[in-house]
Automatic annotation (TrEMBL):
It comes from Streptomyces niphimycinicus. One of its GO terms (molecular function) is helicase activity. Residues 104-290 form the Helicase ATP-binding domain. NCBIfam families: DECH_helic. This is DEAD/DEAH box helicase.
Length: 818
């Protein structure tokens, strides 16, 4: 029997909310909270109030105080036009920070540059100053359109926010700057104006991939004059998504060359390791890096918070901690009552809805005016809903927001006092990015990381050095992934026939792929070029976010009203027939999932339970790329095929998590070809570790769960990007085997990173299991929230002995060096 642990791309079931009723109290009476305009409580004072009450103080496992930092000024380069400098001064910025001036210098010299400094360090102004100055120069040319610039952001919300920022600077500059957002929400009647007249277009990689590049003749005057391409929040372009964006940018460079332009790339990133290397891999060009942050920073108080154990017992009788969802909802409630403007970041859409709903209900008991000042913000909302929430947050109408990462990236949310992070977001870079949303005006800020009942979160709140004394991660992406590259070669050929000189632009794997694309009759060679041969749009061959198909529309059956969308990859586990679906605080039951038409029909209901999908997984080895002996054990890396099928779902009580019943499902299996790391052990090693045959399945399964939970410390991923399977006797290895694989076709680089850091990764895994205080295993060490086998069997003690024996054979200096 194989025990599986699936990535979000295959299995996105959410752990049920298991919250026992609590008597909620706040640390100060509502009428005692200072609310006068301009009075902001210090972060230490706010944290002190949160920690009062029975047992509250014990939940804080560590407090990190980051002292304030003074700023370092410089002068703008002389080439920046005085009108732009005056507009910046009118906005209250007398002189730039040193990193802003240096970034502008490189941009004006025509050098691609990445500025990788802290949150709220003014990266936007670093690229806006040279861009606006150059656009003004172009607007004075007597003929033609002048100079243009393209801005790319990973989210629509960030593009809309940047449009507002640009408007603030450009109002004094007259008609020389014509900025416009061009994305899926742009009305059709406005799009033609943008194509013909805008000289600063703000969009996202998705629209560039599906709209602008396939329709490049209509954009010819814009592309011919393109001087700058701004890539904001470029650290988010990692894994499969980053690999797709890298190829989209190569297509953009190729089309620009067709029109005689060669744009300079200006990239902005949160603090990252080797940003120039990552930016160069993303763009395919040499990039200069600016990493010394010259901006000032207010004091940051960063608390690590571990929810308490409850009296409840979960799967296999394991002790259960109060969920990060419930604990974060309490904190958001307390902060709102204190008048502290807060964003709570949560991993899932459902979690965002639940936190907002719980906080609203508890605030209604304190002050009936407060619930309306709390809301949820997530992907899948309709455009007008997102815009209204963004306006309310900017205006201060909203006091608290429970948001997914759709709101994380770079949005200038002025005036926030605190950020609550409900569960480690997967990387240190993302954690600091989210925490940096507070205190953006240079004042003090409070950040709280609330640990989930999860191996990695538990490890981090008890090992703060892993967060505060380690550098942020390198960005992992692989543009040469054939599953990524192939559809972009087809898209490029549809845009302009591919020639021999073009092949070098797309990378070394291109030459090998071209005959395969010809054989599949996707491309045809005529004379000196390859042509797209199909009637359908080549850009539709791939979803650059790796979702694997068109989003499923969630439609209210009685009215036909579109509630929102769900990624195709998550549809089997989240909107299957009988699933409970949450939207803006309302519960719906899914009555039908039509996979052919990508529609889930729902009706409003209030069931007293949540639903969790269960599935089966099989894995086969296609190719072993590398194999290294660890004593008698073997550590391997290569290609695998994973077959997964959702077979049923459980109904669980909302309060206790008790299973009410299981219903069968008839959904088709899905197959994934990807990359994996795996290790095997021998019978002699099992005997040495005293792992008896009846305990073997549980030992392997526990080691698999814990290793997946810890891997984000060593790779730029989170546990939902990866999956795993453990097998007491695998058909291909004929040995007990544990697999950890990338949850994306062709791989995303995460399993490869695990292979290269295997000794440290598996040592940390063993340490995390051994350090947990439970007796037989719990969600803090070896249980997984997305296990398709209901966390059965698991054997904590046998897993520790097995990993000890495995690590004893690890080379001291393996050839798998980083």
């Amino acid at each position: 029997m194989a025990f599986n642990h699936l990535p979000a791309g295959v299995h996105d079931a959410l752990r049920p909310l298991s919250v026992r009723p609590v008597t909620h109290s706040v640390s100060m009476a509502h009428d005692q909270i200072p609310r006068q305009a301009g009075i902001r409580p210090s972060p230490r004072a706010v944290l002190g109030r949160l920690s009062t009450g029975a047992g509250r103080g014990a939940r804080i496992t560590h407090t990190e105080h980051l002292p304030p930092r003074p700023g370092t000024h410089a002068d703008w380069p002389s080439a920046i036009r005085p009108e732009v400098i005056n507009a910046i001064r009118a906005a209250g910025i007398e002189r730039p920070w040193a990193h802003q001036a240096r970034t502008a210098e490189h941009a004006l010299r025509g050098e691609s540059v990445v500025v990788a400094t802290g949150t709220a360090s003014g990266k936007s102004l670093a690229y806006l100053a040279p861009v606006l100055s150059t656009l003004l120069d172009g607007s004075e040319e007597p003929n033609g359109r002048g100079t243009t610039a393209l801005y790319l952001s990973p989210t629509k919300a960030l593009a809309a926010d940047q449009r507002r920022a640009v408007a603030g600077f450009t109002a004094p500059l007259g008609t020389g700057i014509r900025a416009a957002v061009y994305d899926g929400d742009t009305p059709v009647e406005e799009r033609e104006w943008v194509r013909q007249y805008a000289n600063y277009v703000l969009t996202n990689p998705d629209m560039l991939h599906r709209g602008i590049l396939p329709g490049h003749p209509r954009w010819s005057s814009f592309l011919r004059a393109l001087r700058y391409v701004v890539i904001d929040e470029c650290h988010t372009y990692r894994g499969v998504f980053g690999s797709h964006v890298a190829q989209v940018l190569r297509r953009l460079r190729r089309v620009c060359a067709r029109y005689g332009s060669s744009p300079v790339f200006l990239l902005a990133s949160a603090t990252a390791s080797d940003p120039a290397v990552a930016a160069s891999r993303l763009t395919g060009l040499p990039v200069v890096e600016i990493t010394e942050d010259g901006s000032p920073r207010g004091e940051v108080v960063f608390a690590l918070w571990e929810p308490p154990l409850t009296e409840l017992h979960g799967e296999q009788g394991a002790p259960v901690r109060r969920t990060a969802t419930a604990e974060s909802a309490d904190l958001l409630t307390d902060l709102a009552v204190q008048g502290v403007r807060t964003v709570t970041f949560v991993r899932s859409r459902r979690g965002a809805e639940l936190i907002a709903l719980i906080a609203q209900e508890r605030l209604a008991e304190v002050d009936r005016s407060l619930p309306d000042r709390i809301a949820a913000y997530r992907g899948g909302y309709l455009p007008e809903e997102r815009r209204a929430l963004e306006r309310a947050l900017h205006s201060g109408e909203l006091l608290g927001l429970a948001a997914t990462t759709a709101l994380e990236l770079g949005m200038d949310i002025a005036g926030l006092d605190a950020v609550v992070v409900a569960g480690y977001p997967g990387t240190r870079a993302s954690l600091w990015q989210q925490a940096g949303r507070a205190g953006r005006t240079g004042e003090g800020a409070l950040a709280i990381l609330v640990a989930r009942d999860d191996p990695l979160d538990t490890y981090l709140v008890h090992h703060p050095d892993a967060l505060f004394r380690q550098p942020v991660e390198s960005t992992v992406l692989d543009p040469d992934n054939p599953y990524v590259l192939a559809p972009h070669l087809c898209a490029a050929a549809a845009e302009l026939p591919l020639t021999e000189p073009d092949l070098e632009l797309f990378g070394p794997a291109t030459e090998e792929l071209m005959p395969q694309l010809e054989q599949r009759k996707l491309l045809r060679r005529r004379a000196t070029a390859w042509h797209w041969t199909r009637r359908e749009r080549a850009a539709d061959l791939t979803d650059i976010r790796g979702a694997g198909g068109s989003p499923v529309q969630v439609v209210e059956a009685a009215t036909g009203r579109l509630l929102g969308t769900v990624d195709a990859a998550a549809a089997h586990t989240t909107v299957h027939e009988g699933a409970v679906h949450l939207h803006q605080g309302r519960s719906y039951l899914v009555r039908q999932l039509d996979l052919d038409d990508s529609v889930a029909l729902v009706e409003e209901a209030a069931p007293p339970y949540s639903t969790t999908a269960r599935d089966t997984t099989a894995i086969s080895i296609l190719e072993t790329t590398t194999e290294i002996p660890w004593g008698d054990a073997r550590l391997c890396f290569g290609s695998v095929e994973v077959t997964n099928q959702v077979v049923s779902f459980l109904r669980r009580k909302l309060i206790t998590g008790e299973v009410l019943g299981e219903s069968k499902l008839d959904l088709p299996p899905r197959t994934l070809r990807t990359r994996a790391v795996w290790w095997t052990v021998t019978d002699d090693q099992l005997e040495e570790a005293r792992v008896h045959p009846q305990a073997l399945g549980g030992a392997l399964h526990a080691a698999e769960h814990a290793s997946i939970g810890i891997l984000p410390l060593f790779a730029t991923c989170d546990r939902w990007d990866i999956g795993g399977v453990s097998v007491p006797l695998h058909a291909d290895t004929l040995l007990p085997t544990v697999f950890v694989y990338d949850g994306h076709p062709g791989g995303a680089g995460f399993a490869e990173r695990a292979f290269h850091t295997a000794a440290r990764w598996l040592a940390a895994t063993r340490k995390a299991i051994a350090a947990c205080e439970c007796d037989a295993g719990c969600p803090s060490c070896i249980q997984s929230p997305k296990c398709g086998n209901g966390n059965d069997p698991l054997d904590k003690k046998a897993a520790i002995r097995l990993l000890t024996t495995l690590l004893a054979g690890a080379p001291e200096q393996p050839s798998t060096a980083e």
